[in-house]
Amino acid sequence: MNEENKPQENKSDLTASLHTLEGDLLNSMKEENYSSNIVKIVTHDQTGLTGKVSTDSLASKFSDNPNYKKYLINTVALLFGVGSFAFYIMNLPESTKPAESEDITKAIATTTLQAIQQETIFEADVVIPLEIANGTKLDLVRNVAAAEEGLLKNKIADKTNISFVSDANVETFFNKLQYSGPESLLRALSENQAYNFGVYHVKGPTFEKYILLKVSIFDLAFSGALEWERNMPIDLGALFTIPFVPTIASTTASSTSKTVIATTSLPATPKFVDKVIKNIDTRTYTDTVKGTTVTYGFINREYLLITSGESSFADIVNILLVKRVLR
């Protein structure tokens, strides 16, 4: 009986000794204040082997495994690069920052106006600021030509209406045109002096000019326009003239060739004639030698429209109808 109980006694003594060793170690840790490490003793009943002490802290992993070093270095480098690029972008000068694209329907400024003095009648497809008050008639013609060139570079669509807004009221505008008509026409205009001056892109490089005036006294305006017919082509010629391009025809003889300029027969003196456009009675002047065309008509008793072609006349009538300007 005593011999049978010996293995059990030895086993219990071994377990007790192990528990005593673990307790001693833990008590020693508490006395020495080792609070940063955890010591674990692993035992195996069958082999009698004791486990090893492990310290699974981040510091030990970083020192033992070089991959942690590479990861940390790469992360710091990435964050530094992103931060430096963001700082560079935020501190770019205004002149080097990419400009926002502008739509062609927005204003294409030919100059910076100090103050807009013009009261317009309708808003066109494209609106362009244009300086008039401080320039001459020649400056006005050149600025309009420059605006047309800019529109072509921006690939303006065909059949597009472009209106200028300026620093000149209607009286100043007519002074710049060197208006030589009767004062009665100017007195017949509305008190707010509303008007539109612009161009109409027909197609290709072809533009037509137009002037739309708001009238308050129809009878006075009608008689004034008739009286102005004598000088209207002269006053508006610089703006309304489209250069005449003759037709070139070549004839070939046996051994020589010569060029003949073919022209149509022209009336001795161009004059205004009656013409109906969009069911509106108009007066039209055409000088094919100089390339000047002037068409004017009263859309109703409130609006006088003057253009350099039929296309612009018809387009503005449509605009006023669509925008319910006409009553």
Task: Set down the secondary structure blueprint.
Layout: H1 2-32, H2 58-64, H3 66-90, E1 126-130, H4 137-153, E2 160-166, H5 170-176, H6 183-187, E3 195-203, E4 206-214, H7 218-228, H8 232-240, E5 247-252, E6 257-262, E7 273-277, E8 280-287, E9 292-298, E10 303-307, H9 310-322
Parallel strand pairs: 1-2
Antiparallel strand pairs: 2-3, 3-4, 4-10, 5-6, 7-8, 8-9, 9-10
Helix pairs in contact: 2-3
Structure description:
The chain is 38% helix and 20% strand. It has helices at residues 2-32, 58-64, 66-90, 137-153, 170-176, 183-187, 218-228, 232-240, 310-322, and strands at residues 126-130, 160-166, 195-203, 206-214, 247-252, 257-262, 273-277, 280-287, 292-298, 303-307. It has an eight-stranded mixed beta sheet, sandwiched between helices. It has a two-stranded antiparallel sheet with strand order 5-6. A hairpin with a 2-residue loop joins strand 3 (195-203) and strand 4 (206-214). The longest helix is centred in the first third of the chain and has 31 residues, at 2-32. Mean pLDDT is 75; it is low at 14-18, 34-55, 94-112 and 244-264.
